[in-house]
Amino acid sequence: MEAVARRQHRKPAAPSRHTGQGRRGAVLKILPYAVFGAATLAVLLPLLRPGYILTLDMVFTPHLRMPEDVNYIYPFYALLHYANLLFPSAFIQKLLLCSIFFLAGLGAYRLTAKKAPYGAYFAGLLYLINPFTYERLMAGQYLVLFGYALLPWFLRALLVFLEGPTVKSALRVAGWAVGISFVSVHSMGFTLLFGVLFGTAAMWRRRSEKTYVKRVALFTMLAAGIVIVANSFWLFPAVTGKGETAQAIQHFNATRRQAFATVDGGVSRPLNVMRLEGFWLEARDMFLLPADLVPGWGWFIVLLWMLVGAGMVHVWHSDDRWLLVCFGLSGLIATILASGILQDWLAAQVPFFAGYREPQKFVAVLALCYAFFGAHGVEYLARLIWQKARLAVALAAMAVPLVITFVLLWGANGQLQPVQYPADWFAMNQRLNQDTGGGNVLFLPWYLYMSFGFSQRVIANPADKFFDKPVISSDDPELPGVRPEIPDTTKALLSSRILPQAARGKQLGARLAPLHIKYVLLAKEQDYQRYNYLYGQNDVRQVAQNAHLVLFLNTEYRP
């Protein structure tokens, strides 16, 4: 009994040191998810309200339809279509955007966390928030950003593979490459660049290890074969000059390259690229530039370069000096290509390189190199300043990307906000669906890009995606010397002859009938008054109207 009483009066045991370390380890595992989740919300939280985020090329509509053309993006769009059967398209769009930014930050973190555990947070934040991601979001190029977000995951898998080539590690490399190829064919070129540079360097370092070299070569062929087979449904037609991709590349001539050339930003093209800028839309005043909101913005870019330079010194003094060469060459090549240097020659000599109509996309590679070296730069400076305060130094460094691209935060500084399609559009869609017969719908005004009252900014015309009937709308980007990527004889005829001459006659319906156009749908947007001649046609009559749209019937149409 006395023994029992003594046990009852014992003091509780103090927590063991191992318990504290376990809790600290659990927190450190969760911390990256929390940091980059918070960073993603800092960018997108105002955009998560009900509605669609419509900006230039990013135009989601209530129904995500199956793609009509078979190209590299077909599997992804098919996946969106089937996901739309379960979830609203606005939810899918927001989930995609959140995933893109979160994966970008977490991927860059994981790429650098092993050798730079504190600087890796800087790497992730810089890769998530920078001028490249901001400008591509404003341009609505979410698939370019998706490929960009997956790039560090591919590179991490590649480094693991080169460290110890196995079938499993080769399959991981192939898996990330296939994933990238299904969302951004341009990013496939970036994976090829990394694969060639890093693979060659790794084999040269261990060239005396014959077994290693053979395994790398063998498993690389395995991974490449998987990627080629997975993309064979569009790649083989493109190689033989057939399919949508081949047609688009054939039209990427010198005039088109000039229209989408990298801009100098008031300095020089290479220097502007080194600032992670140079996107051709910068010259069109379609969105704020990062420097517009931050006084002395250029000095923060210099500070970023200093961190990158410090990281290069740190890597040089480490056991991974070969990575300095690989990332350094990758960044140098990306800067040259993004600046447009040798673009015409490469387009003529290298298969598919003509597909890079916007060479500035190579800034994606430079951004990843900055993230890698920046992470090591933070570690290096932390050791120089105060070894025990590495976290404080990392937090201070994380302010740099936040300041440089402050304009990206909180819905691009309020430039973007969720919007709804007008109820009149839904009502007109129901009206058109009452006609169960065939026939196309001609949508006017005849612009590929235009400003709608509900969009509050210039966007790609969403009519062909919104309405259930087959809609014919303009495909002309209205850039000097730039023709539509995919030739369309119907749209070309409408652009060059029928519509320019419509106001001078009374028989528009007769001219539209051979194109199987049964209806003309006029949106009361932009310069819609120039189409008032529709009311005076002998064979076109108004059949429906609401506050946003007017519907005309072509009486000359015959099934």
Structural class: mainly alpha
Terminal Cα span: 101 Å
Strand line-up across the major sheet: 4-1-5-7-6
Oligomer: single chain
**Rg, alpha carbons:** 28 Å
Main beta sheet, described? Answer: 5 strands, mixed
Number of helices: 24
List how many beta strands DSSP finds.
7
Shape category:
elongated
Helix content: 55-70%
Q: Which strand-content bin applies to the residues?
A: 5-15%
Low-confidence spans: 1-9
The overall number of domains is: 2
Overall average residue pLDDT? 92
Characterize the structure shown.
The protein is mainly alpha-helical and 559 residues long. It folds into 2 domains: 56-408, no CATH class; 423-554, no CATH class. Helix content is 57%, strand content 6%. It is built from 24 helices and 7 strands. The chain has helices at residues 2-8, 17-44, 74-84, 89-112, 119-128, 131-138, 142-163, 167-181, 185-205, 210-230, 232-239, 243-250, 254-259, 269-274, 297-316, 321-338, 343-349, 363-385, 390-404, 409-413, 423-433, 463-466, 489-501, 508-512, and strands at 440-444, 449-451, 458-460, 471-472, 517-523, 540-545, 549-554. The chain has a 5-stranded mixed β-sheet. A hairpin with a 3-residue loop joins strand 6 (540-545) and strand 7. Helix 4 packs antiparallel against helix 5 (119-128), helix 11 packs across helix 12 and helix 18 (363-385) packs antiparallel against helix 19. It starts with a helix and ends in a 5-residue tail after the last strand. Mean pLDDT is 92; it is low at 1-9.
